[in-house]
Amino acid sequence: MRGLEEPGPGPTTTPCGCVKPALETGNLLTEPIGYLESCFSAKNGTPRQPSICSCSRACLRIRKSIFNNPEHSLMGLEQFSHVWILFVFHKNGHLSCKAKVQPPRLNGAKTGVFSTRSPHRPNAIGLTLAKLEKVEDVGQASFKYFQSAEEAKHAIEAVLSADPRSVYRRKLCQDRLFYFTIDIAHVTCWFGDGFAEVLRIKPASEPVYMMDPAGSLVSLGS
């Protein structure tokens, strides 16, 4: 890291009078891509060091308005164990800062702000390394009883392997669809000769109209 340097040239226009791009002038207009929530809702009691409370958890919610297809932005992220997060110290309370600060670790002694992790700095930007536990779509409903989608998948497979249909449906409704609900998932499936095919899974909160056994069966191709 270099020491003190004179500021660079200040013109924001090119010789021809054209305005320089914002990246060249250093004037950046940023927009938050998401917001962090943690188990610590207030400043008091929040550990300064991550090792103090290693079991603490936080959630980063990505704003869906950033992209036309926000779900694509997280593809592949689950392959990593950690992520770097740039954030803004929006709770500073004021924008002023001092060249020297008194960090708690020095018990009142002053030192340069750039040798500390003080949030009160010229640009109130922070950087943290966070362990990534999971990536999930919060737009999808969470299971009430299963701990993961994989666990729910195994449960559905177990139900289908036992063929939950009644004797009546096995013999007289072989060409009809079969429905059942497990946890919050409403499953639509079809049984063939020695196999079962899942056609659709949707949240059980969506209305499913089944007036009677005959009305709950749909012919294939209808």
UniProtKB/TrEMBL annotation:
It comes from Piliocolobus tephrosceles. Residues 30-176 form the TsaA-like domain. InterPro entries: TrmO-like_N (IPR023370), UPF0066_cons_site (IPR023368), YaeB-like (IPR040372), YaeB-like_sf (IPR036413), YaeB_N_sf (IPR036414). Keywords: S-adenosyl-L-methionine. Coiled coil: none annotated. Gene3D superfamilies: YaeB-like. Signal peptide: none annotated. PANTHER family: TRNA (ADENINE(37)-N6)-METHYLTRANSFERASE. It comes from the Eukaryota. PROSITE patterns: TSAA_1, TSAA_2. CDD domains: UPF0066. Belongs to the tRNA methyltransferase O family. Pfam families: TrmO_N (PF01980). This is tRNA methyltransferase O.
